[in-house]
Amino acid sequence: MGQFGVEGQSFVLNGEPIRLLSGAVHYFRIVPEYWEDRLLKLKACGFNTVETYVPWNLHEPKKGQFNFDGIANLPAFIRLAGDLGLHVIVRPSPYICAEWEFGGLPAWLLADPGMKLRCMHEPYLKHVDDYYDALLPLLKPLLITQGGPVIAVQIENEYGSYGNDKAYLNYLRDGLIARGIDVLLFTSDGPEHHMLQGGMVEGVLETANFGSQAARSFEMLRRYQPDGPLMCMEYWNGWFDHWGEPHHTRDAEDAAAHFRDMMELGASVNFYMFHGGTNFGFMSGANCPSREEYQPTITSYDYDSPLSETGEPTTKFYAVRDVIAQFEELPELKLPEPIPAKAYGTIAATASAGLFDQMTRLSPPIRTAAPETMEALGQNDGFIVYETFVSGPRDEQELVIQDCHDRALVFADDRLLGVIERADKSKTIRYAVPEGGARLRIVVENMGRINYGPYMLDRKGITEGVRIGNAFLFGWTTYCLPLDNLEALDFANAEPAYPQPTFHRAALNVEGKPCDTFLEMNGWTKGVVYCNGFNLGRYWEAGPQRTLYIPAPLLREGENEFIVFELHGTEKAELSFVDRPNLG
């Protein structure tokens, strides 16, 4: 049993003052086989604590269906950290942001057309309570008061950036306490007036999130919280990337200098991120600064962190360790053996199958009057196909998707008319329906729900309707394609079917023990890749990311199946495996 708390201006662990030197490592962005490697490197850098978010949508992907296995085994991650001598900060607030799909909230919340998020809205609170009733009993035995490594738990995340419902924050606090969470509770917000005013909870420690100007940021925090230790809960020492934008980097010495400023002020610090990892599957989120903008996040969450996406120490790792060594006595640096990477060469796809021939194998048809959103049809992620027949002839008019969330390929009688993108309003389609009419198919891709800001009610698919000119089209057949199981695909006697989206299958033979590798997507346009049934994530020629990371535990000795779902086409259906990443 132990105790961790606040006395005066200090954190105190079992009666002794302690400065928390923490790093964010998200278990859900790392294959479990590599958790120990990343945590050992965190400790070797001089840190004494690991921090992690807890994504609700990973643990309850369907209402009432909970998952704490494999990459979702949060208790195992916490126990491992404790066994390695690390303290643990857990941030299980319903919302996490984290550039993660819907900020960690489950998509099925949006099946309720009246849903209100992150406030005293009874239906929302009922779902939170059900989730906490499943999650918190797993955390309780891991608390320091029960002999475990968890020293602190977050109530809500950057709430002052979103709202000001103090009754909601108090409800979450009281719910944690009632379920036995008896460790230090805290909140974290940006060092701005409205953020601190909206996000602080009476009797709960407030911490600050920022990437520079430590003295100014802590001065603002002190204005609202005169007593208690100073802590930067998110020191943004790097940054994330959006598709179509340059790869973000931050000079290692600059990041180290601002860290040194905080150390000189006597503050505790949590590096966000210490190790970013990967947004596997469809779990990368998106930002939306205004209704006219939509910025989806790439698959890599390298974040230009002290550890790279593959867990390798970077220049920033050594610069940060040098700063810690100026304030704390560190042992000789000892790192785990490097994880080998290998270039497995180039293989050709041996079979291909067009989507339209496979739809009924992947999804039962659903008939509705108007197009329905993914959430209304019980779908979280992936793609959705809407099909209808349009009578003709009709003069050429604009074909309007009202509204498209997020990117649509529009076909008439299997001829590609064009692409409509939420993020690019310049893309439009005009169409003259021929005599006898035409079959219209619209393939919509969910590119990630908004994870931050005022536009998080982000339902996917076609959110209102489809019209030609001002006339709406009714009578639709819909195919939900979460693509979470591709076993039903039939490649027998199938052929490439461009311009329609196409599945390509290839086999990689691995001799001996598998190594990390990277799938180079040069020559491919846009889509998603599966390795032995595991969704590696999205790729897109828009960049900056050019490779997909494949950790060795996803491979096996002998034959490995790769399936590429390509939306547009490739001149040569080949997969090239290289031994180093290319993030642009």
Question: Which stretches are poorly predicted, pLDDT < 50 over at least 5 residues?
Answer: none
In the CATH hierarchy, the architecture of the largest domain is Alpha-Beta Barrel
Major β-sheet annotation: 8 strands, parallel, barrel
Beta-strand content bin: 25-35%
Number of strands: 32
Strand order of the largest sheet: 4-5-6-7-8-9-10-11
Assign the CATH class of the largest domain: Alpha Beta
The helical percent reads: 10-25%
Continuous helix count: 10
Per CATH, the superfamily of the largest domain is Glycosidases
CATH topology annotation of the largest domain = TIM Barrel
Oligomer: single chain
Coarse structural class: alpha+beta
Report on this model:
Keywords: Glycosidase, Hydrolase. This is Beta-galactosidase. The active site is at residues 158, 234. Belongs to the glycosyl hydrolase 35 family. The protein is an alpha+beta fold and 584 residues long. It folds into three domains: 4-325, Glycosidases (TIM Barrel, Alpha-Beta Barrel); 345-353 and 485-578, Sandwich (Jelly Rolls); 370-474, Galactose-binding domain-like (Jelly Rolls). It contains ten helices and 32 strands. It has an eight-stranded parallel barrel with strand order 4-5-6-7-8-9-10-11, surrounded by six helices. Strand 28 and strand 29 form a beta hairpin. Helix 8 (252-264) packs parallel to helix 9 (315-325). It is globular and about 85 Å long. The chain starts with a strand and ends in a 6-residue tail after the last strand.
